[in-house]
Amino acid sequence: MFAIHPAKPMPPTPSDPSRGVSRFPFTEHSATDPQARPLRVAVLGSTGSIGTSTLDVIESSAGRFQAWLLAAHRSVESLVAQAKRLKPAWVVVVDEQAAAQLGPGSLPPGTRLAVGADALEVLVQDPAADRIVSAIVGAAGLRSTWAAVEAGKTVALANKETLVMAGPLVMRLAARTGATILPVDSEHSAIHQALCSGRPEEVQRIVLTASGGPFRTRAAESFADITPAEALRHPTWSMGPKITVDSATMMNKALELIEARWLFGVPADKLTVMVHPQSIVHSLVEFIDGSVIAQLSPPDMRLPIQYALTYPTRTTGPARRLDFSQTMTLEFEPPDASRFPAVRLGHEAAARGGTAGAVLNAANEEAVAGFLAERLRFTDIADACAKVLDEHPFEAEPTLEEIRRLDAWARLEVTKWSVA
Ligand code: NDP
Ligand code: MG
C-alpha cells in the first residue's frame, strides 16, 4: 500500500472554441492566482544549503511565497543578513548563547526574535504558517518537523532523518492530523512525480539513483586513507558537510532507501539503487507493464524545493535547465557493494523497520562527526554503523521515547569505537 497518492495528471482542457484547437498541453499559463495572498513559509535551517536555496525560490516567486519565519542554530550573522533581505515576521535562533550576540536593532522593524528549540516548536504550529520547509540537518530536525506534522501543516521535507528515525510514527501522525508531507530530497521528488503515471498497485519497482560520490572509481584498498577534504569534494552536488560525507560513503542512499520506504509506504524489496554519475535522472519508477518513468533535470535543489512548495501546480522558477542542443550522456551501473557497504545497511534497515533506522542514523551522525574531526577513518563509518546496528536491542514498534533513547545509546557506542 502506498501512503502517498500523488494527484493524477489533469485531463486535457476542453478545446478553446475561439481557436478550434486543444489548448492542452502547449498553452503557456501561470498557476499563480493573482488574487491569492502570498503563502507564508517557515524555513527551518534557513542558513544551510537547502535553506539558502529555498530563499532563492521564495525571492524568485514573484510574490507567490513570503518568508514568514527563518530559523537556524547559531549562524546569527547570516540569519540577520537574511532577515534584512526577506523581512520575515520571526527569526528563531535555537542556540541561546548565539542569540545573545543579537543586540537591539539587529533585526529589521517588524521582525521578532524567538530563542530556543521550544520556541521553534510553538511557532511552526502557528496558524499563520502555511508551509514548513524542514531543512535542519540531522536528528535535530525531528522535533520541529514532528510539531509541524502534529499541527496538520504542509511540510516540504528535506530532513530525511525524520523519516529514517521515526517513519511509521510520523506517517501515522500525518494521517491522523491531515498533514501533507512533500519530499524535497531530489530522488523522492522524482519518485513522487513519476508515481503520477500509474496506480500504487501498478508499481513494480522504485529505482533511486545515486551519483556514486567522489570515490566511485577510486581503488577500494585506499578507502581507509580518504581524508575529510577529499570526502567533502562532491562531483555534482553542492550540499552541507554532513550529507556530502554521506554521499561519499553512500550512506546517504541508505538513508534515502529508508526514507522512501516510509514516505511512499512501499515494501523494502521493491526499492533498488543504481549509480548514475551525471545526476540528471533523479530516480525512476518501473510499472508492471515494463514502462519506466523518470524525472530529469540538472542537479539543482531549487527545483525539488519549488515543486514541494507549489505542488500540485507547477510554476516557472530559478532552477537550471537541461540544454537539449548539446549531446547528453546518461550512464547507469549497480553500486559496488565492496566499496560502499553502507547501501546494504540501508536495505537491511528499510526491511527491518522498527528501531533499525534510528540506530543507523544516530551511529552514522556520530561516525561522520568523528571522521570530520579526524578521530575515525573513512572506512570506520560503515563498519561502526554495521556493528551498532547488529548489536542494538531491536524493537519492532518503538515509541518516540524509545527511539530517542536508542539514538543516544547508538551515539555513545560509536564514541567508544573512536577511542578504542
Ligand atoms: P547544512 O549543514 O547546509 O545546513 C543545516 C541547517 O540546519 C543550518 O541552517 C543550521 O543552522 C541548521 N541547524 C543545525 N543544527 C540545528 C539545530 N540543532 N537546531 C536548529 N537548526 C539547526 O545542511 P543541508 O542544507 O545540506 O541539509 C539539510 C537537510 O536537508 C539534511 O537533513 C539533509 O540530509 C537534507 N538534504 C540536503 C540536500 C542538499 O542538497 N543539501 C539534498 C537532500 C536532502 P546553522 O547555520 O546555525 O548551523
Ligand atoms: Mg537525495
**Helix share, percent:** 25-40%
Q: What are the bound molecules?
A: NADPH dihydro-nicotinamide-adenine-dinucleotide phosphate, magnesium ion
H-E string: EHEHEHEHEHEHEHEHHHEEEHHHHH
N-end to C-end Cα span: 45 Å
CATH topology of the largest domain: Rossmann fold
Walk me through this protein's architecture.
It contains 15 helices and eleven strands. With 420 residues, it is α/β, with parallel strands linked by helices. The chain has a seven-stranded parallel sheet with strand order 4-3-2-1-5-6-7, sandwiched between helices. It has a four-stranded mixed sheet with strand order 9-8-10-11, covered by helices on one side. α13 (356-372) runs parallel beside α15 (400-419). It is globular and about 55 Å long. It starts with 38 loop residues before the first strand and ends with a helix. The relative contact order is 0.12. Residues 3-31 have low confidence and may be disordered. Bound molecules: NADPH dihydro-nicotinamide-adenine-dinucleotide phosphate and magnesium ion.
